[in-house]
Structure formats: structure tokens, C-alpha cells
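Batch manifest line 387
LIGAND: P-hydroxybenzoic acid
JOB: complex structure
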Amino acid sequence: MKVIVSIALAWACMGAAWAQDVVKVGVVAPFSGAFADYGKQFDAGMKAFQKLKGDKAGNTKVEIVIRDTGGPSPEVAKRLAQELVVRDKVDFLAGFGLTPEAMAVSDVATQAKKPMIVFNAATSIITTKSPYVARTSMTLPQISAPLGTWAAKNGIKRVFTLVADYAPGTDAQNAFTKSFTAGGGQIVESVRTPLQSPDFAPFVQRAKDAKPDAVFVFVPAGEQSIGFMKAFNERGLAQAGIKVIATGDITDDHVLNAMGDAAIGAITSFHYSAAHDSPENKAFLQAYAQVAPNAGRANFMTVGAFDGMNLIYDVVTKLNGKIDADKAMEIIKGWKTQSPRGPISIDPETRDIVQTIYLRKVEKRNGELWNIEFDKFDAVKDPGKQP
Ligand code: PHB
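JOB STATUS: finished
ARTIFACT:
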């Protein structure tokens, strides 16, 4: 009897020790459906980080648990996040490609007291929804406002805006309009395109008929970027002298080569280009090529996840594997690193990212298309949260 009790106790102790030696990161994102690449790039970004730094943060193993929303599907995202907390006992929630999914999970982060690291979803308001949310990607106002300022100073006077009809689109349109009109520019017309399976042709025709100097665009990266550029090309807007100015989602590195030469000359503002010239980006791209050799080019989602994993590793190391959400958030506030995209930090006031925003132009180099950076705005905070 005594022997059995001591064996049971030994097991229990081993269990406790084990529980402290592993930290779990539950990743919620689409891995199937129209937005499947978002999840796949998150996974590759996290694995690229682990390729460079190993699977341990200090003495603690960091385990990734993946859940597919098949989304956009806020209800599924919420249920999966709840299951990750209750059943899988994850220490962090992470991922979130799409705003509606991030918004739905923010309540779970608050109730379960789990740090929630957003690798992409980019509507300004997301980080205000829970004190446990922080973001390693971008916000649409942070990207769009500098582009409006730049366009007004660079001979663009009349703009037609075209954005996806959901919160990130509204954020992009409002921030661009504000800075562009403040610089003397005029918005001639604004349209919103459906989030699911849009047909861009009629919207692009309306843009052509309005005869603007440029069309400002935000659509979620990936298939929609290709769809928009195809319609823009087929309707002959470039020939009519109309430029594309957009958030970098439209010239997403992951699908840029699939757009063909129609994309050449597109001007975008963004936080990451695979062509960014730095030692950190080289190391990141090398690790990515090793973990995802057939996955195509890395993009901003891959980097959002890579940096998010870096942040998680620092928290796990500093807390020695015992994750307390309030202590974790204190470490996250003010965190700084040299990312593959350039210097980044987390604003201690808003838990949102502060970073360089680059202006880029699509150019062909050695037979491939790249977003080539030509100007920048340093240390940009989310203007969506400025009074
Ligand atoms: C979002 O839903 O927040 C989102 C999705 C795709 C992007 C950017 C933002 O390219």
C-alpha cells in the first residue's frame, strides 16, 4: 500500500514538474478555405523562429497547438479558443488572421486570463477589447495614414477609394481619407466590396468612370489581391492613366508573382517586404526556406507570427515557464526587438505595435516581382488610438 501511494505521489510530482516545463501556445486561424494561407504562414513563421532559437525558451519547452477555423468564422474561433483553454490548457492564445475572429476571442482572453497575441488581424479597436491582447502585426490606420500624406505630397489630387466591406476596410478608408484630405487631396468616390468571393470588375469599372488620378485599395491579402489586380488590368485602368496606391496587402509577397507584370509600378505602404535588406531579414528568410521549402515566398503574416513567437519566448524565459497573465502583460508592455521588418516595440499604453512604415513600389528584379522600399516613416503608432 505504502509503495503504491509513493508511486502515485512520484507520478503526481513528475506531472507537476512536467506541467511547468512545457508552455503551450494555442493558435487559432484559418488553415482551410479561402484564407488557408493565413494559418499556414503563421505556422511557418512560428516554426522559422523555433528553427533559429530551438524549441525551448530558457528551460521551458514551447509547444504549438493548432486549430483551424476554416473562416472567417467568429463563432468557431471562439469555441476553439475556449476548448484550447479548458481542454488543452494552453498558456497563450495566438494567431488571428481575420478581425472578426480576433474580436470574438478577446472575451475568452479576458475571462480565462490568457495573453492573446495577434499575429495579423489589423483593425485598430482589437487591442482595446481586452487588457490581455497585444499585437505584433500592424493596424490599418497605421499603414493607411502615411500613404495619404505621401500621396497628397506627390502630385495625386483626386482619389477613388475601394475597400473590403468590414471593419479593416472602414479603418483603412477613414485613415487614408483623413491624411490625404488634410494634405489637400480630394476623394471623388468610395466603394466597399464584399468580404466573401468578391467580383471586382463592376467596382473597378466605376473607378475608371470616375477618372481619378489613383485608386486607393485595401482588400484582405491573398486571393483577393490577385482578383483585384486582374480586374484592374482587364479594365485597362493603367492605360487610362490611373494609378494603384494601396496598403501592402494588395501586393502581398506570398502571391505577388502570381499577379504578373500588371502589378509593376503599384505603390503601397506597409510594414514588411520580403525584399527588406537587413541581416535579421536574411536570417528569417533562410530559416523559413528550411521549415517551409515548398510554401512560396514568406509574407507579413509569416513575420507577424515570427515576431509574436519571439515575444512569447521572452515572456516564457522571464517568467521561467510559470505564466501569469498580468505578469506577462507587464513584460509585453514596452517590449522591443529588431524584427526582420526593422525596429519594433509594443506601446505600453495601448499594447499595439510601433514600427517603421515603408513606401514601396513593385519592380521586377531577376525575373521576379518585389516590393522595393523607397521611403519610410519611422516609429509610427496606431493613429486609430490617437485623440
Ligand atoms: C483583418 O481581417 O484584420 C485583415 C485580414 C487580411 C489582411 C489585413 C487585415 O491582409
